[in-house]
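Re-run with default settings, no changes from the original entry. Doing this only to confirm the output is reproducible before filing.
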Amino acid sequence: VGGWSECILIPADRKQGCGTGDQYRQVRCVDTRSDSPVDDEYCDWTTQPVDINACHVACPGDCVLSAWSEWSSCPKGCIGNGQQQRTRSLLRAAATRGATCQHTIQTQACQLNITCFTYHWVVTNFSSCLPLGGSPCGEGMTTRAIYCQRSDSRPVEDSWCSEETKPTPAEKWCYVDCPVDCHVAEWSEWNATQCHCGETGVSRHAFISTNPSSSGRPCPSPLVQWKPCPAVPCYTW
């Protein structure tokens, strides 16, 4: 935000060189890290400072007052029927025929989310577990955002929430299971006892030494193999 320009009088007052006018200033959205200007869309338009302001150039003999001070602070949390005020001081008293001084104190009611606010901590859910060093699995960290929020949902500096204990932790250790593949140790022998009069096939089954994890390679299917029996004669008395 730049400084205010000189008061530019309205056309009707320019001839006499005093009276009512407007003053201007440059308001830009900037990157706080580099102080370089950026597009206005990156800034919150609801908090954009005004870039034009009514002003007055005193005529000879008129009362002259200073600019208004900043508004005083409202009570935290807008408790009760709070008010805030601002003041200005006398710089030159009015001459006999000059314009008299206007009031030097202004007051206004404190209004929630307009002139006063409440503040509280906001805590997001923890993120997914992110393994360290770019690994696909193993030890990692999970994080969450913890910030101070104003009652109009605008994030503000943590100092505004200093009366409340800040939640912890913002990060913690976690672990992502590494994939475990199924491992078949060996196959059983073919069950030759199955081949006798009237039977057509013989089978064997796999011995699994390691069961797979949810992300590992599954076991082969089927885990039972079959092949036909050789011809077996049937005898009877």
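DSSP finds one helix and 18 strands in the chain. The first strand starts at residue 8 and ends at 9.
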